Amino acid sequence: MSKSTISTRKVLLAGTILTSLAFGLPAFAQDTTATTTTPPTTATPTDTTATDKTTEIVVTGSRIRRTEFTSAAPVQVITAEKSTMAGMIDAAQVLQSSSIAAGSGQINNTFTGYVVDGGAGINTLSLRGLGAQRTLVLINGRRMPPAGVSGTVGPVDLNFIPQSLVARYEILKDGASSIYGSDAVAGVVNIITTKNFDGFHIEASGLKSEKDGGDSSSVSAMYGKTLDKGSFLISGEYYDQQALTYKQRDGLACPQLLRYKTSDGSRNDRIDPRTGDYKCYSSSGVWGGAIIDNITNDYYYYSPGHTSGPLANYSVNDVARADYNPDAALNGTAISPVKRASLFAQGQYRPDWLGGAELYTELMFGERKSSQRDFAQLFPYYSSFSSVNILPSQFTPAEQALYGIGPHGLYAQPVSIYEVDSSQKVDLGRVLGGIRGTLKTWNWDAYVSYSKSVGKYDNTAVYADRVNWGTGFDQNAFVDIPECGAGAPAGCVPLNLFSVTSQTTGRLSPAEEAYYFTVDHGKTDYSQLTAEATLTGDIMQLPAGALGGAFGISFREDKINDVPGELSRAGNSYNRTSSGITKGSDRLSEVYGELEVPVVRGKFLFEDLTLSLSGRYSSYDSVGDATTYKAGFNWAVDNIFRIRGTACTSFRAPALYELYLNNQTGYLGQTNVDPCINYGLLGPDGEFKTNATIRANCAADGIPSNYTGNGPSAKVTTGGGKYLEPETSYATTLGFVVTPPNTGFKLAIDFWKTKISNQITSSGSSVVGACYARPEFRSEPGFCDLFKRNPTTHFITDIDASYRNIPTEVTAGIDYTVGYEHEFNFGRLSSDAQFSWYKYYKSQSYPGSSIIDYQGTIGQPNWVGDVQTKFRHKDWTAAWTVNYTGAASNLGFYGETGGNAAGTYTYKASVPPFVTHDLSLRYRGKQFEIIGGINNIADKKPPVIGSGIYAGSAARLGNYPFSSQYLTGIIGRQFYLNVSKDF
Q1: How far apart are CA 159 and CA 340, in angstroms?
Q2: How far is Cα 123 from Cα 107, in angstroms, rounded to an integer?
Q3: Contact 864, 100 (CB under 8 A)
Q4: Are 159 and 137 in contact (CB under 8 A)?
Q5: Which of 399, 489, 700, 838 is packed most tightly, with the most Cβ within 10 A?
Q6: Phi and psi, residue 525, nearest 5°
Q7: What is the pLDDT of residues 127-138, one digit of tens each?
Q8: In 3D, which of 742, 732, 725, 864 has the Cα closest to residue 804?
């Protein structure tokens, strides 16, 4: 044996040992399912999940036949059997928990009240943390259309994947624009549906939480028939995800500071005089029950029975009563409810008159209904002449007469909450028809598909102009106006946010609610037309084998038309930016080709060496032309060792919303956008309310430490980037594979790196906070250039939040796929492990600015993965699944120290590994199957972190990290049941 082979074996075996030691887990096999080897351009592999036999399968990543452990590009395969035995009944959960996705937070149903691409209720997939818009999702090798609401529809909504029909998911782990086109930057997900099914199949699944809330269930039916000249299959599914409210979990209902004294380690949290226990803060992120005196900077907190002080039933600057969390806010949804129904049909037919060619079709229709209950703040300024203003005046009657002000507090600002209900109804239809056949040694395929998404969305809205009349104060111009004066819409009543009911529950009188609140209705249409033709086959015979080729042409047209609600379009929705109509289209024409070149075969140290080459030329109406390529090699040293690698370029044309998003021009109060307001103010506990970095940067800008921000609102403009350039990327992979025959052992170790240039992004109004939170501040170009201040008054006047290109984003790491299987006399043991180690995730926001590495922070752990071990004995199969999220820390990230500057207390800014276990048992009869199990069997709770005080502090959901990796811990132990029957 040569030295090179010995060295290679040492590296691979060392990798196996290190994998096992790193996790304290056995290194087990990738369990895949048997399949036919029909080329994917002419037919999709048959689903045979009913068998446990492990064989290699055709996988995504080429239009030429490939297999998982022998392909040039790394691919992860998740079979329907694996996800079902892990207690998963939702496609979003399956894909978002994969090791290539779990290294970063995913957009799921916990994003209540957040603005996300595609609108509320959407579930998307971000591979390698590079964003959902850089992940291409296919169904049976063909592009899946976007769906959602609002002007930012672009990513695929995983809610519309027909989970009951999925045979397996294939995830290509590198860029593939040259093979699949735009968006395939971070990777490609190909959803393979069941094929060649005969009979009738019904199935029901459910996940029931040990505690209330967060339950989910699904029912489905499938009928298929194979005929002499074709086959067809139709499937229907209904899924119900129930809400989880903040009050249903202790860790969400009572967020605490979780601070500890440096001196003795005891709790340093404040005691709430209302309860006598450690204070709970707002679970939904908003608080009420206060009145702010913007002249004296005093905060009056609602305190029933409190008599000392200038205002009865209010205590002044009492930190123990600060940030009052009304009980009503606990009814907010931490997990949004979703109901969806889908219908999927596919068929093939070979009429005699086509001479052996086959007609085929796919039909997909789905509807998603989702909703969210959130709470927002009403905190308008009030005129000192207001009839409901109860804040004591700071001026004597003589001064009031002299200055022309009223008898109540000047710039009084009550803080109250109100319920915000949002709902979405999205209907998606996709119709596809094609024809395929053979011409001598070539396979050809041509199809046309059309899809349309119609989304309707409703949101609670507050009339901004009526707030002005009801407070006697113009919130934008910052001047007094007559309370309910001439010009006010009919029926005006004063807006009394000072009432006990408003301060404690957020509710107003029926007359006030009828006058100030409404529902804003919006509608979004998105359509996509695709036509493609492909030719694949052997070009010629070379000494080492056949030269394979694939060539094709493609056309696609996308259109969007989003019409926001009337109040949004008019800019008359309180504390929200206005939204104009977003309407636009883009067309794309492409040609592409791929070659597989056998170089050496059957030689010493060269059992097989094959090169793969692909290229694509794309022409967009919007951004012009682009060319991408991919090159790979696949070197089988012998029948045990294999080395593989790829290098490719990819690109992403700007999405329609990034190009055409209508300028959303609105106004936000200075207190909403400016971190420099009162940055030098000490809180009642004697600490600065603002961290040291922000204080230093605000001072450097010449802003006084007692600057109040009392002035007109800032104008915020968000729109599409008319001069955007397409994103480009360069990705490389290098893998080592060992598959010793007759051992049941398989191992693949793949090194990867992806670099994106000209990344398209928008930071919204948060650019101001980002500017002052950065240690480099104005020494580098960046966020500080996107807003303007009045040099005299210091008011922020304009904020540019439009889409733009930023320089670079780069990530790298290693994927481990390890497997083992063995047949015993009494049964078969099989196991597979998928782990990813993320080395870094670096981003540069502006040319010349600092490069920030986010990897290893909370929500971006270095290690993620899962192991599933199964043992089958006759008709029984037991499965044990271990889910691993590695340790993470924000210490040192953007000034995070895990304690206050005075050194008197600390808080947790790091988390240990988070590990959960799922156990299931399956019995398979001749025509029925039943699976029962427990997810998160130990009821493992997510790690808690403290309420941080620095720009680099991690976001929290309750007391837990706000990131999708910890969702199963928040829900807690769940009982799982799946029952299916064949007829």
Answers
A1: 8
A2: 6
A3: no
A4: no
A5: 838
A6: -110, 130
A7: 999 999 999 999
A8: 725
- The helix (run of H) or strand (run of E) holding residue 397 is helix 397-403
Pick the closest to residue 528 from 909, 144, 835 (CA basis): 144
What is the pLDDT at residue 182?
A: 85
At CA 940, angle to CA 938 and CA 945, rounded to 5? Answer: 165
Residue 411 backbone class (left: φ over 0; alpha: ψ -120 to 50; beta: rest): left
Beta strands (DSSP E) in 440-570 are 442-462, 473-474, 479-480, 517-542, 545-563
379/929 Cα distance (integer angstroms): 57
Cα(first)–Cα(last) distance of the chain, in Å?
56
Which residue type sits at 438? T
CB 552 within 8 A of CB 560: no
CA dist 58 and 36 (Å) reads 8
319: left (phi over 0), alpha (psi -120 to 50) or beta: alpha
Q: How far does CA 72 lie from the centroid of its chain?
A: 29
What is the bridge-based pairing of β-strands 187-193 and 135-139? parallel
Residue 949 token pair? 């005080």
Of the candidates 520, 748, 734, the residue with the CA atom closest to the CA atom of residue 633: 734
Indicate the Cα dihedral angle 659, 662, 665, 671, nearest 10°: -50
Q: What residues contact residue 816 under an 8 Å CB cut-off, 6+ apart? A: 15, 19, 747, 748, 749, 833, 834, 835, 836, 837, 865
Separation CA 787–CA 225 (nearest Å): 63
Q: Which two tokens stand for residue 625?
A: 């032309």
Rounded Cα gap, residues 381 and 410, in angstroms: 9
User: What is the rounded CA–CA span in Å between residue 274 and residue 315?
Assistant: 13
pLDDT digits (tens, 9 = 90+) for 620-658: 999 899 999 999 999 999 999 999 999 999 989 898 888
Here the tokens at position 69 are: 């452990």
How many angstroms separate the CA atoms of 29 and 69, rounded? 11
Per-residue DSSP letter, 565: -
The one-letter amino acid at 522: G
pLDDT tens, residue by residue, 52-61: 333 444 456 5
260, 907 contact by CB (below 8 A): yes
Query: Are residues 584 and 527 in contact, defined by beta-carbon separation less than 8 angstroms?
Result: no
Tens digits of per-residue pLDDT, 415-455?
999 999 999 999 999 999 999 999 888 999 999 999 999 99
DSSP code of residue 19:
H
Nearest-Å Rg of the Cα atoms of the chain is 30
Report residue 830 as tokens: 């099989």
- Two tokens, residue 482: 């007559």
| Closest to 602 (Cα-Cα) out of 668, 545, 537, 660 | 545
Give the span between the Cα atoms of 835 and 819, in whole angstroms: 12
User: Which CA distances in Å does 586 have to 526, 559, 653, 655, 664?
Assistant: 12, 7, 10, 9, 21
Largest CA distance in the chain: 104
For the record, the structure tokens of 255 come out as: 């967020």
- Mapping DSSP onto H, E and C, the string for 264-303 reads CCCECCCECCCCCCECCCCCCCCCECEEEECCCCEEEEEC
Q: In sequence order, what are the residues at sequence separation of 6 or more whose Cβ sits closer than 8 angstroms to the Cβ of residue 922?
A: 85, 876, 877, 878, 879, 929, 930, 931
Looking at residue 450, the DSSP 8-state letter turns out to be E
Are 414 and 470 in contact by the 8 Å Cβ rule? The answer is no
At residue 827, φ and ψ (nearest 5 deg) are 155, 180
Given a contact cutoff of 8 angstroms between Cβ atoms, the answer to whether 864 and 129 are in contact is: no
Judged by DSSP in three states, 45 sits in coil
Residue 792: which residues within 8 A CB-CB, separation 6 or more? Answer: none
Q: Name, in order, each residue with C-beta under 8 angstroms of 381's C-beta and a sequence gap of 6 or more.
A: 294, 411, 412, 413, 471, 473, 475, 478, 710
Site of tokens 């796919």 = 362
- DSSP alpha helices (H): ranges in 487-623? 500-505, 510-516, 566-570
Whether the model clears a pTM of 0.85, i.e. scores above it, the answer is yes
